[in-house]
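Schema walkthrough. Field components (list of strings):
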Amino acid sequence: MKVTIDNIAIEVDEGTTILEAARKIGGKIVPPAMCWYSKLKGSGGKCRTCLVRVAQSSAFEFFTWDG
Amino acid sequence: MGRIILTEKIGIPGIDEISVYRDNGGYSVLQKVLKDMMPADIVREVTKSGLRGRGGAGFPTGLKWSFLDRKTDKPRYLVCNADESEPGTFKDRYLMEKLPHLLIEGLIISCYALGVKTCYIYVRGEFKSILGILKKALEEAYHQRFLGTNILESGYSLDVFLHPGGGAYICGEETAMLESLEGKRGNPRIKPPFPAYKGLYDCPTVVNNVETLATVVPIIEMGGENYARIGKGKSTGTKLISACGNINKPGVYEIEMGLPVEDFIYSEEYCGGIKNGKRLKAVVPGGSSVPVLPAELILRTLKGKQRLMTYESLSEGGFDSGTMLGSGGFIVYDEDACMVRNTWNFTRFYRHESCGQCSPCREGTAWMEPVLRRIEHGEGKYSDIDLLVSIADKIEGNTICPFGDAAAWPVSSAIRHFRHEFEFHIEHPEIVKNTDHGSLIEYPESSIQYR
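Field assembly_structure (string):
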């Protein structure tokens, strides 16, 4: 599926989080993150430093951390 | 005189017994439903009635039910939210104490409508007495075959389980409640996925408040359209309001939506005016989590319109000059009440009850409490007021669950409307240190343990 972050479009798998998608693009658009560790189940979304504004999302096919 | 729909039978002696309840027309709606109505008809009636969730958020119940994922072959669950721990709110407790069978009847009808075979009632940990009442009521209902397998030969089976909570406020949040039911720590989940898709044990789940489920019974009895005619605009029907504070007649009242706030406070039928003939200072109309409003703004909106007891009218003016109906915990303060002390008291509660999952809420509530404490004890600085506003601003909207908002709103609204009191505390440390400058509000019995 296709997502657009700061006018940059990218193709990602379903279930990708916004943070992962942003990291895939890289550069300045990557939000800061502290509490997420990919190998740790249930981590992420707790410290709220990666909070971003979502303009349009179809919530159920796209697992977002922050609304 | 407003219409009494929900608590009509509450005065009948022994109504918590199933025989008395049945003699007074109880469970007749359930029998009618199981005989003549399809589940979809019930959902349609509830949608037509415009019933809004009575737990606080005011989300339309029919809409919530329609979100439930019906395509999966997983079991569906209904969880009844009886974890009423909001300071100032005690309406569910009253309802469950007096009319346990109304809740159970509403529960069975709702479960039938949603195709639910297993239902949980999550009762607040402090409600030990209510646990016993509900247990007895459930046993009676099982005995009379309103619960169990093949209810009244209709082929529909339902099991209801009581689950006492551990006494955490946060477990009143729906996803935290599901975590708690699963046996985990009561931390709210990140949404989406919403409980309607992945709730209890990863199965579609609906969580409804006690009052919401009980209201389903009169809705089916009188029909959704007739119910929608009661009330005003999008706030249909009646609502239980638990009034407390400096009023002559504290207690739980059923009001028709659209009653002017002024009438509610001053009429003999409801609160009966302010105690000892004092003047009204402020009102928190929906439990501790909603913004506090000063007297002139609660009686009239900024535009001069009379404020009514509806979801829309109370929130008119946004958070600058409005508030929310919330869960209906109506707290009234007279002129003697100290708003700083009150805000500090609320914040102390939120600091204690924050689950500690997200940083803004965990750290923010733990900061606001000492700052408010030192203002209250005459040790504050002028910059503390701005500090509080800044912290509240950073908590609000940045947390996983609405707890963060609930912790921030009382503080930011108290400063917005009663900044002079905060300044008085900072300017006159000797007065606030040595005298009892504001009498504490009277708490209903259910909240005494938090003081």
